[in-house]
Inverse folding.
């Protein structure tokens, strides 16, 4: 079926990195070796980059859904829904290199030195439309009647939101957070233009790719991530299934 | 009853004060010595992550940060990215003085601060003022860069497919049509082509290292002609790509850097780095001192110590061994005389590499010019080549 | 007290707007301004000159712009034709468990750095690669096919495999939001499956189609890794040529090209807003304040 074929084609390019990480698929290849996986922690630049990536991802994974939630509410509550939507969707239309360049100019004119925050800001701008759209989708399934009931029971707007609406749209917020994390993790071009002395895993891979060649350790890192995520998905599925049967 | 509590408490306080004082006094020198130098490097200058031969005697740690080699990447980071406040030294391919100095990003260096400078005969032989290599480290009569690596580029080929080759003409030989790759870089591939065209008398070029717009146009016209005939398989733009092309035997003749041949050899593919009769494309890495807004004396002193260290035997030997480039004359001597740190095989390899590259410099060719006078023309002409 | 509360409320709700105005709109305006500045030596100074725009429109780079438009449009179209059936299947035919699994599976490849993913295609498509190997083993060809790599074919494969998964999501979102009763009503009224599809499902999913088109088109347009890794001898899209201009420090030119690209994309955005009422796009998502 089409879906199956497409998934197969999508996963095809994931196989070479797997092979490279264990030392196969090269003319001088010998037996399978897992040495590259052990060396992951021995590369200080890579380890620092991993740390930076995680730090930025956490900031983005918290700030983007938060802002997205506020934006979704703003569309609903404020008198300027079209303006809010326009602004929120705008980042989707700016190619990465343009956005990175623009942000670099901007920070330079303001004299803001590159830091974790400049990287985070650029990534939040990128992730915001996605986060907002996800939250809005979930909000659409929320029945405002419940809010009315809360108001009748005496709650004010804020309490109504926090006690009634928020718990029900929580899956959407979590989904937005996950989406933002994935986007942040993947981001290369915008980050490379505003990161200054920092490095994320992606920009590190980009620069080693250009100058010194990729090593088996990088392939090992990528493969580990894939396997970890697949295991996570499988785990969530199994738990979900068992919960349904009990 | 109260008295029995008092004395121990006072004693405790005194003991605590003494301990605290002692702690503070031991922590303080560690704090001031626990400073870090931020060393931005394109990936060539990393001696395997271990800077202890520098850190132990000086007490300064080295924090290696990866930067790209493209002029915009460097300037972006330095200007827009506030690199002047973050980096202490940047180690990139030299010849970048014009934009860096004009934008007030680097400081001139004083060779007197580095004892190893005088010991480096390569500098006096190839890079001193008046020598063609000066534009890699100097600008308007002043010295800015420390040449940490020296190298000569040519091209590589697969002897099993082509037999021995000794001229850049191989890149344009119709026999290898569709099996040739060039680097996507007008200062390397463009300049090598110019060197070839001048030697072969196919174009009137006075100096391949600094071409006029008309001359670069002639070079690009030639390249477009070749491209239309299908001569080139691909223009590569990364180390990984070039090695891959050799290893997968996707091309037989490739304009590339020598370390790629070493990398291919490590993967079991025998490629040969040619010895072309037209000569080599010579270049050097330069470590620059970043112009800091608030320079501290200790910081500058430490930076000079690091620059000196990079001109030293241990660092040179490590880099030669890891990357295959020539570094400084002290390197092979150090490797040979320290069997505890370098095996005999490694020391031999270092000596071989050094001799090999020295031979290239003696043979000559053309010095790569990273920032030609008419670099704009180079860029727009190269765009024309790519769009054709 | 109530005024303070109201102020706090507006402040909080307005936060995303302020954030975006500051970190998105201002940088873009600054870039637009810089595109009119003059290049002096190694830097640039404020001025008002059309030099950069003239250089862009009269030179070779305009060809790159045209090519970017063409390639992006084609790649987006093909991706759309592939993603739509997948989204249709997931939204209207598949069991909920399958849907979750499939959607997750579509996101996993994104965890691999897209350069490594793109680069892996060179390994798969080159003359000594497994695909050529299989074609020869099956006897379909006698010599390895050179055009599989370093040309249009490879660039399309690279672009499509990078952006198609992205496009499945908005399509799925929009298709799964269609009220089933409308589809059932169409059947009840006697329409054949094709009629139902073209008459009911497709129009209702158009907002999702448009969103997917945006994701794909904008993404492809600004691409630089795919053309440089898979393109061959000088295959250039806008991303490459902007970076090249930056490399010689011609920032005003880079800014000019960037601004032209942004304007082209904004034209798309305006078309979206004019064609579709927000309510159509977001379905039941937005409940308007009365």
């Amino acid at each position: 079926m089409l879906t199956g074929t497409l998934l197969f084609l999508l996963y095809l390019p994931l196989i070479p990195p797997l092979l490279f990480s264990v030392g196969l698929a090269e003319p001088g290849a010998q037996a399978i070796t897992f040495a590259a996986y052990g060396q992951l922690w021995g590369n200080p630049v890579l380890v620092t980059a991993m740390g930076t990536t995680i730090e930025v991802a956490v900031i983005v994974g918290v700030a983007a859904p938060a802002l997205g939630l506020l934006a979704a509410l703003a569309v609903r509550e404020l008198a300027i829904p079209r303006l809010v939507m326009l602004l929120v969707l705008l980042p989707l239309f700016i190619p990465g290199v343009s956005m990175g360049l623009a942000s670099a100019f901007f920070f330079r004119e303001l004299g803001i030195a590159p830091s974790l925050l400049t990287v985070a800001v650029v990534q939040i701008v990128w992730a915001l439309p996605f986060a907002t759209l996800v939250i809005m989708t979930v909000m659409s399934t929320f029945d405002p009647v419940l809010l009315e009931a809360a108001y009748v029971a005496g709650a004010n707007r804020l309490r109504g939101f926090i006690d009634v609406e928020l718990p029900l749209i929580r899956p959407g917020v979590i989904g937005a957070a996950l989406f933002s994390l994935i986007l942040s993790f993947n981001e290369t071009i915008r980050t490379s233009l505003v990161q200054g002395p920092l490095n994320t895993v992606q920009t590190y891979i980009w620069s080693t790719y250009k100058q010194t060649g990729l090593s088996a350790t990088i392939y090992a890192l990528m493969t580990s991530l894939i396997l970890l995520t697949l295991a996570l998905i499988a785990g969530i599925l199994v738990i979900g299934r068992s919960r349904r049967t009990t | 009853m109260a008295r029995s509590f008092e004395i121990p408490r006072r004693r405790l306080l005194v003991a605590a004060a003494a301990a605290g004082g002692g702690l503070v006094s031991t922590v303080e020198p560690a704090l001031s010595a626990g400073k870090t130098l931020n060393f931005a490097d394109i990936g060539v200058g990393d001696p395997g992550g271990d800077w202890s031969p520098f850190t132990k005697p000086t007490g300064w740690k080295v924090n290696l940060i990866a930067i790209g080699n493209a002029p915009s990447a460097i300037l972006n980071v330095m200007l827009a990215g506030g690199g002047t406040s973050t980096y202490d030294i940047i180690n990139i391919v030299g010849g970048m003085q014009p934009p860096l100095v004009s934008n007030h990003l680097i400081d001139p260096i004083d060779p007197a601060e580095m004892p190893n400078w005088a010991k480096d005969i390569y500098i006096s032989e190839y890079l001193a003022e008046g020598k063609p290599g000066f534009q890699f480290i100097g600008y308007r009569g002043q010295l800015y860069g420390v040449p940490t690596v020296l190298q000569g580029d040519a091209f590589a080929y697969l002897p099993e497919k082509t037999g021995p080759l000794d001229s850049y003409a191989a890149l344009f030989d119709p026999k290898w049509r569709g099996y040739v790759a060039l680097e996507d870089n007008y200062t390397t591939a463009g300049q090598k082509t110019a060197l070839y065209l001048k030697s072969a008398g196919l174009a009137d070029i006075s100096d391949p290292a600094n071409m006029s717009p008309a001359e670069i146009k002639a070079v690009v016209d030639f390249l477009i002609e070749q491209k239309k005939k299908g001569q080139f398989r691909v223009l590569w733009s990364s180390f990984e790509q070039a090695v891959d092309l050799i290893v997968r035997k996707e091309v037989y003749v490739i304009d590339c850097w020598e370390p790629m041949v070493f990398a291919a050899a490590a993967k079991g593919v025998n490629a040969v780095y040619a010895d072309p009769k037209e000569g080599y494309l010579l270049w050097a890495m330069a470590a620059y001192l970043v112009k800091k807004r608030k320079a501290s004396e200790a910081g500058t002193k430490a930076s000079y110590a690091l620059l000196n260290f990079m001109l030293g035997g241990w660092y040179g030997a490590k880099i030669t061994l890891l990357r295959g480039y020539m570094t400084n004359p002290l390197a092979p001597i150090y490797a040979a005389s320290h069997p505890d740190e370098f095996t005999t095989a490694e020391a031999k390899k270092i000596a071989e590499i050094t001799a090999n590259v020295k031979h290239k410099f003696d043979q000559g060719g053309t010095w790569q010019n990273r920032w030609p006078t008419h670099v704009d023309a180079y860029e727009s002409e190269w765009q024309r080549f790519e769009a054709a | 007290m109530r005024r303070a509360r109201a102020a706090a409320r507006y402040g909080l709700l307005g936060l995303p707007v302020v954030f975006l105005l500051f970190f998105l709109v201002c940088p873009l305006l600054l870039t637009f301004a810089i595109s009119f500045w003059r290049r002096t030596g190694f830097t640039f100074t404020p001025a008002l000159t059309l030099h950069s725009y003239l250089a862009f429109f009269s030179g070779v780079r305009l060809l790159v712009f045209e090519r970017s438009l063409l390639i992006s449009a084609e790649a987006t179209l093909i991706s759309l034709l592939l993603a739509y059936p997948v989204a249709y299947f997931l939204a209207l035919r598949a069991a909920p468990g399958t849907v979750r699994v499939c959607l997750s599976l579509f996101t996993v490849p994104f965890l691999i750095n897209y350069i490594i993913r793109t680069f892996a295609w060179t390994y798969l498509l080159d003359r000594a690669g497994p695909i050529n190997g299989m074609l020869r083993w099956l006897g379909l060809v006698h010599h390895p096919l050179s055009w599989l790599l370093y040309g249009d074919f490879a660039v399309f494969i690279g672009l499509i495999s990078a952006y198609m998964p992205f496009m499945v999501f908005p399509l799925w979102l929009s298709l799964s939001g269609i009220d089933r009763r409308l589809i059932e009503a169409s059947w009840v009224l006697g329409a054949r499956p094709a009629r139902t599809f073209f008459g009911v499902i497709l129009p209702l999913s158009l907002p999702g189609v448009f969103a997917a088109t945006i994701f794909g088109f904008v993404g492809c347009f600004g691409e630089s890794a795919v053309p440089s890794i898979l393109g061959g001898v000088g295959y250039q899209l806008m991303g490459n040529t902007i970076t090249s201009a930056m490399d010689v420090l011609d920032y005003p030119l880079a800014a000019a090209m960037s601004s032209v690209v942004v304007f082209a994309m904004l034209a798309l955005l305006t078309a979206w807003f004019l064609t579709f009422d927000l309510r159509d796009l977001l379905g039941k998502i937005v409940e308007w304040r009365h």
Q: What stands out?
A: Chain C has 13 helices and two strands. Residues 2-34 of chain C form the longest helix (33 residues). Chain C has a mean pLDDT of 82.
